[in-house]
Amino acid sequence: MKDVSLAEVKGLVGTEVGVSDWITVDQAMIDAFAGATLDDQFIHTDPERAKAESPFGGTIAHGFLTLSLLSAMNYSALPKIREQTMGINYGFDKVTFVAPVKSGARVRGRFTLAEARFRGASMLTNTYDVTVEIEDERKPALTARWTTISQFDPKDRPEDA
Questions:
Q1: Distance CA 80, CA 124 (A)
Q2: Contact 109, 77 (CB under 8 A)
Q3: What is the per-residue DSSP string for 31-87?
Q4: pLDDT tens across 17-62, in order?
């Protein structure tokens, strides 16, 4: 999607505003995440044991790893707001981990703008309904409602906002 202006954002509410590039979640990524988060449960880090002892047939990504990839997905999928000077992660209202992401799988994010609301003189909150799809799988990895803040110079705020 092309870049948009602050004045155009409200008109996008209720529409799918972007689909990210595919990201491969390989064992190296899973291991790095395990190291960074101190979560080295065998279903994530031990391919042989995970194959033998888990119902997944091998290792799976941490749910929080999949969730953390939303930042990268955001950059490849969402239109840039021309007046934005900074973007801030505000938080999640709901996250549901629906299906495991097996090592080697590819995932992508699908974003629908659920709400856009101006706050104060220089902020716009954008709330997205997000689905992280797993390539060639019927069920998504996760669904979430994610709110971000677009910071901008107050002089750029639309008059009708």
A1: 13
A2: yes
A3: HHHHHHHT---HHHH-HHHHHHHSTTSS-B--HHHHHHTHHHHHHHHSPPBTTEEEE
A4: 999 999 999 999 999 999 999 999 999 999 999 999 999 999 999 9
Whole-number Å distance between alpha carbons of 43 and 49? 8
CB within 8 Å of 69: residues ≥ 6 apart? 23, 25, 107, 109, 132
- pLDDT of residue 161 exceeding 80, the answer is no
Is the whole model's pTM more than 0.70, yes or no?
yes
Within a 10 A sphere around the Cβ of 85, how many other Cβ atoms?
11
What residues contact 127, with CB distance under 8 A and at least 6 apart?
93, 113, 114, 115, 116, 117, 145, 146, 147
| Rounded Cα gap, residues 144 and 93, in angstroms | 7
d(CA 70, CA 95): 12
Of 52, 144, 136, 18, nearest to 93 (Cα)? 144
Whole-angstrom Cα distance, residue 95 to residue 132?
A: 11
C-alpha 138/C-alpha 118 separation (Å) is 36
For the domain covering 6-25+62-156, report its CATH number: 3.10.129.10
Residue 71 has pLDDT above 90, yes or no: yes
List the one residue out of 2, 1, 4 whose CA is nearest residue 124: 4
